[in-house]
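Readers of this paper often ask what the protein records in our data store actually look like. This encoding replaces a full spatial description with a residue-level series of whole-number codes. For reference, a complete record is included directly beneath this paragraph.
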Amino acid sequence: MKIYGGDKKLTTNITSEEIRHLALLCRVAMTDDEVELMRDQMSNILDAVGVLNRVDSAGVEPTAHSVDLVSVMREDTAEPSLPTEDILDIVPSRDDSFVKVRAVLE
């Protein structure tokens, strides 16, 4: 893959052999027409992403989201559980100190 650019328009040239190699790694069968189409599309995608390399991001704090998000979920805190005997007293079926359930897999 050769990338041409500088201050000019960024152009990424991906070869058909590179697309075939990617298809092989991904285990995707592609016809010759599909390889050529994918080559053009991948070049366009990489050109669009390459524009980001020209953006001056010095002094910009990294973020996970572009806007501030506040979680509506409560904090996950450990709390004491109910006593085992209290739980076992209300289950429909038990075997000693275990809850007895119908088999899911046979």
